[in-house]
Amino acid sequence: MRKVILAIDEGTTNVKSLLMDKQGDVIGKGSSPLSINYPSAGLVEQDPLEMIERVKASIELALKSTAEKVDIEAVAISNQRESVLLWDRQTGKPLSNVISWQCRRSESLCESLREDEIFSQYVQSATGLTLDPMFPATKVSMVLSQISMGEERAEKGEICIGTINSWLIWNMTDQTFVTDVSNASRTQLFNIRNLVWDAEILKKLHIPVKALPAVVGSSCVVGVTREFGMLKGDIPIASQVGDSHAALFGHGGFNKGVVKATYGTGSSVMAAMPKLPAIRSEISTTIAWQDSDLFYGLEGNITHTGSGIDWVRRMLGVEDIEAMCELAAEADKDHSVFFVPALSGLGAPYWDLDATGIFSGLKSGTERADIARAAFEAVIFQVADVFNVIQEELPAPIEYLSVDGGPTLNDWLMQAQADLLGVTIRRGDVAEVSAMGAGFLAGLEIGWWGDKEALASLKRHEVLFDPKQAKHEYWQTRYLSWKAAVLKCRMPS
């Protein structure tokens, strides 16, 4: 039987499971979709019990996708970050739905907390994160207050508060309650300097530390599986890591000068470094992962990229993304339309909750194709915003950007990104880089590879998009026009 690692990537819209061998090759995979619920304006939730069933389904599909008999030596988990839920410690039953990272229910609480400048600055310094509804801290505080005797029960240890990795591990084991440093660092409750749950923030938000999981390394055996669908028992769970962090590791982000961009519903641009970098308000400072070493990360989170394209697609009445691409290709390359997808405010590097989405430059001659292309262009402009901030913090120029995610399959989009940034874009042939990164961390833990140098020597298949200097000025000029549109969308109403 071929020895494999089962790498699970629990995302926002689907769960993917891969079977990867010691050469880093994927020999089987499966995917199962997740539903998203919108109970009211600004609220975004998912069903935690459905999530468990979809994980089981994706594992079953992966196991059935290969004719080979396999021996699963370890389980690896990457997960959508910032999404969080509460459950009863004794029964294991959810006390809330999964509160999505996209949910904006705590906007007013964030605004109130930001009025306390001393506390706001403390949060930024301690956690590396700007007070924003994307992060779980304020949402957990609100949901806990809505549960009968919630704070009192949490103080007694009767309630568990966890991100998705914690929820999966709880259900896949005999109720092991843990998280890793990467996911903890995204809750806005974890002090990234001292590597502990931050007492001052917990006190301010009325969140008892007894309700939070133990924090361990990203590459670490935390327990063994029980029978879980088609997954057998007694298999070590050897890694857990946030999906963007996992993607960076999968791209070889443990090497100097590697910057990655994950394009999806939203997007993440991230670089790792061995020491705590300067805390900046425009981007997040986070913990990238911890294996034998602790790596910090600089990251910019963009709220609407793929979802911005999809929103424009629906407004135009275009059937699917393929048709949207075809429509955008018909646009005049010098069209005057610029789209800023501030559909729930702007994320990095602006962090402006009051910004509103706009189309700028509409004229009587504007065509549907121009609007469609503006939606795609907004993606590369937003990535450039964050890329430029990260470049300022790195000691040497960035030579290339490693990319992953569904939108990267659009060759035009990737070439345009390369031309705008003036750097080479590297796109691997495995789309599920987050799962691969988690698998690599698990493999290091169980001794598949002696060190990261051995891991880096694994054969990689990449498509390169080299920048075309002749196009650089064209895209830079359009980027300046898009920046002007950003200023308009941030003007007080």
Automatic annotation (TrEMBL):
InterPro entries named in the record: ATPase_NBD, Carb_kinase_FGGY, Carb_kinase_FGGY_CS, FGGY_C, FGGY_N
Entry GO CC: cytosol
PROSITE patterns: FGGY_KINASES_2 (PS00445)
Biological process (GO), any one: glycerol catabolic process
Single GO MF annotation: ATP binding
Keywords: ATP-binding, Kinase, Nucleotide-binding, Transferase
All copies of domain Carbohydrate kinase FGGY N-terminal, residue ranges: 4-250
Residue ranges occupied by any Carbohydrate kinase FGGY C-terminal domain in the UniProt entry: 260-443
Family as reported in the entry's similarity comment: Belongs to the FGGY kinase family.
Alphabetized PANTHER family for the sequence: GLYCEROL KINASE, SUGAR KINASE
Name of the protein in its database record: ATP:glycerol 3-phosphotransferase
Organism listed in the record: Marinomonas mediterranea (strain ATCC 700492 / JCM 21426 / NBRC 103028 / MMB-1)
